[in-house]
From TrEMBL:
Gene3D superfamilies: Homeodomain-like (1.10.10.60). It comes from Oreochromis niloticus. Pfam families: Myb_DNA-bind_4 (PF13837). Coiled coil: none annotated. PANTHER family: HEAT SHOCK 70 KDA PROTEIN 14, MYB_SANT-LIKE DNA-BINDING DOMAIN-CONTAINING PROTEIN. Residues 5-98 form the Myb/SANT-like DNA-binding domain. It comes from the Eukaryota. Transmembrane segments: none annotated. This is Myb/SANT-like DNA-binding domain-containing protein. InterPro entries: Myb_DNA-bind_4.
Length: 153
């Protein structure tokens, strides 16, 4: 397995932030030949978050996240238990569910991205609060939030 690098949590969060963009989501839903969309996602990940992954890696991770989500969802359903979090089946379950089901994305992708990145998103919430969000320390997060803030103004 030469040259294969596992995705870090920060890299996955960057992919999720780019995927959460309404334009990207709608194009992925309506297009079968989607190489250009994943090329754009890879460029956005590098430009906005400093994450360097090629379009094939992004497409593979996207497909794996969707697959893992479906498996986690069915494993949870098979368990029949309403107690317990789906997070035990999949690390980014709530984030992927929010993106796939368009939950909590009504207020625009910037707030979604902040919350996604800070790990605050709950799939059950229909809308996102625009109140204060906890900002974690770390160079990557700090740079990312500054970039988000600059983009918004």
């Amino acid at each position: 397995s030469s040259g294969i690098r596992h995705w870090t949590d920060d890299e996955v969060r960057a992919l999720l932030c780019v995927w959460a963009d309404r334009n990207i989501r709608e194009r992925l839903k309506s297009t079968l030949r989607n190489k250009s969309i994943f090329q754009e996602m890879a460029q956005q990940m590098q430009r906005k978050y400093g994450v360097i992954r090629d379009w094939r890696q992004c497409r593979t991770k996207y497909k794996n996240l969707k697959y893992d989500y479906k498996i986690a969802k069915s494993a949870h359903a098979a368990g029949g238990s309403s107690a317990g979090s789906l997070g035990k089946y999949m690390k980014f379950f709530d984030e992927v569910e929010a993106i796939l089901l368009d939950k909590g994305l009504e207020n625009g992708s910037m707030e979604m991205q902040k919350r996604l990145y800070d790990g605050e998103l709950e799939a059950g919430s229909a809308t996102l609060s625009t109140g204060t969000s906890s900002i974690s320390t770390g160079a990557f997060k700090g740079a990312r939030l500054m970039k988000l803030t600059q983009d918004a103004s």
